[in-house]
Amino acid sequence: MVRHGLDRQPAVFERNGRTWLVFGAFDNHVHFLDAATGRQLLPPFETGDLIKTSVTIDPDEYPLAYLGSRDNYFRIVAFDRAEPIELWRLGAYDVSPTLWNDDWDSSPLVIDDYLFLGGENSRFFVIRLNRGYGADGLVTVAPELLFHWAGWDDQLLADLAESDAGHFNVAIESSPAIWENTLYFANSGGLVTGWDISGLAEGVMPQQVFRFWAGDDIDATPIVDEEGYLYLGVEYEERDTARAREVGQLVKLDPARPDDPIVWSVHDPSALSQRGVWSTPVVWRDMVYATTHTGRFWGVDRETGEIRWEKLFGDLLWSSPIVIDETLILADGAGRVTAYDVRDTSVEPPVIWQLQVGNEWRFESSPVMWDGIIYVGGRSGAMYAVGDAGGR
Predict the structure, then answer these.
(1) What's the rounded Cα separation, in Å, for the pair 146 and 200?
(2) Sign of the Cα pseudo-torsion (169, 172, 177, 182, in order)
(3) pLDDT tens digit string along 256-274?
């Protein structure tokens, strides 16, 4: 256990014969740890405010971390030096017009040499990184801001005018998803859009090809399956829009039917004013697994939207479940981690084991597993490594 605290998923990867554990925390620092021991591999990198984003590590093995903070800045940080160093930053007010605030909660997506990023300033960015190495062998970047555009439109603002009382929370807090040549992202106004990015290499601005309004906040990342269907987790907060009541809180969409995309939807029947799906669902074989703010854990038929089974927890469920080697791992709002056997999806999954983790009182961070060890951050201010008694 290491004291830091976070509410987003840590990054785990191999570098130079070690397993690294990297995460941003509420202490305004990004931490670079040896996953086997919890000891620092590098000094922490300090920002001006707490860090809520899940740190993205470069997928092409450049020693680069991509992260945002609540201090107004999104940063690219190199970690191939004696201490991590900022190579580039983007301010939330470097572009206009903006709406809402200057936080960066969304985790960026890096594909080839392009970075795709949404901000709580309600704008979306495409950045060419121009990664490389200098004569000294150290990593370099020379980012170019290729495109940025509003994550809202006039129709959304009109639809939200009464419920948002003119404040227009249309921040982009969820992370983007890409399927083939289409980029998807959602915002806190409940708008999901798809953008054709096939012309990026030729300098062509992405064009909107899909639009869907769910009626309320979407913080969860849209999930795309192998056939191109979208799965959305939708919150239900104080807006109380007719659209949110109509659409539901777990939705499957067919982007090939833009005028009528809803395949099925599931409603959170709780009577509370704050309910719905605040975490990212998991698509596994013929199932969709989702959790709700009100402590419901659903197993939903992927084709029909039927709730095959439901488990009720006494506390909120904000952590996204993960499936590894036919085992579903769920961290909950009471500080427990539970492993379920999901080999047979026709039955309600039995519990393999459940662990109350130390004195932890809430997990909001999603777990990650690497080499049989589960890493998860607690709201109390701790990062945990959970494994069997004979392991680490």
Answers:
(1) 9
(2) positive
(3) 999 999 999 999 999 888 9
